[in-house]
């Protein structure tokens, strides 16, 4: 997938961002202001998510927070979750697996150790999978949407991918079609490695289907 990205690496910051995203030279400072002015969607112990308006479009910023020294030490010698999500999203786009458009990521460091990160994507107006199937739709439409979800699992098999957390809140429905989010646990395998792990996503999804009666009619063969 060939998108125009800019890269910047400074002493305490690593940035990859879509070209012309920022209007100032202080990229990190501008992002933090956009984040502060946004609408909080999720506030957890390790992450915060905001929806913001930037350059006349809606974006989503997910902040991966610094927890403590040992957490920082563990994440300093490897890709952090924001970078993993960004790389996975690019591969998903390449393979035709729907996910919100990745716009960039920023990682902060302090004394050489990981100190937090941001993932920036487009914002997609959507419902969680279970919410969509709880909403009145024509049955033919629901059957069609369910088939789109099943097609994603077929693409996982084709490209030897394990998402890692196929729960209903990680499957969004936008314009009656699914999109996957939270890609930081996603793994890309070769044939042999995938054979040992390919049942993980289906097992997780089956558990989700069993929790929501509205899904069972349309995904019964996956139970």
UniProtKB/TrEMBL annotation:
Pfam families for the chain: Kdo (PF06293)
SUPFAM superfamilies recorded: Protein kinase-like (PK-like) (SSF56112)
Lineage: Bacteria, Pseudomonadati, Planctomycetota, Candidatus Uabimicrobiia, Candidatus Uabimicrobiales
Keyword Transferase found: yes
Gene Ontology MF terms in the entry: protein serine/threonine kinase activity
Swiss-Prot/TrEMBL keywords: Kinase, Serine/threonine-protein kinase, Transferase
Name the record gives this protein: Serine/threonine protein kinase
Organism: Uabimicrobium amorphum
């Amino acid at each position: 997938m060939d998108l125009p990205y800019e890269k910047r690496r400074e002493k305490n910051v690593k940035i990859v961002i879509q070209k012309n995203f920022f209007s100032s030279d202080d990229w990190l400072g501008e992002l933090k202001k956009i984040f502060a002015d946004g609408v909080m969607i999720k506030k957890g112990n390790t992450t915060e998510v905001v929806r913001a308006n930037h350059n006349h479009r809606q974006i989503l910023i997910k902040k991966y927070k610094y927890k403590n020294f040992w957490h920082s030490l563990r994440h300093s010698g490897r890709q952090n979750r924001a970078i993993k999500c960004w790389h996975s999203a690019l591969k998903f786009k390449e393979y035709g697996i729907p996910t919100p458009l990745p716009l960039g990521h920023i990682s902060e460091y302090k004394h050489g150790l990981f100190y937090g990160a941001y993932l920036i994507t487009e914002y997609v107006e959507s419902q969680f999978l279970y919410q969509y199937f709880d909403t009145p739709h024509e049955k033919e439409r629901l059957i069609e949407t369910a088939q789109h979800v099943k097609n994603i699992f077929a693409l996982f098999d084709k490209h030897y991918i394990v998402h890692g957390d196929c729960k209903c809140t990680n499957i969004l429905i936008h314009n009656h079609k699914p999109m996957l989010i939270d890609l930081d646990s996603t793994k890309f395998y070769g044939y042999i490695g995938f054979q040992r792990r390919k049942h993980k996503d289906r097992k997780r999804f089956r558990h989700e289907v069993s929790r929501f009666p509205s899904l069972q009619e349309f995904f019964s063969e996956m139970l």
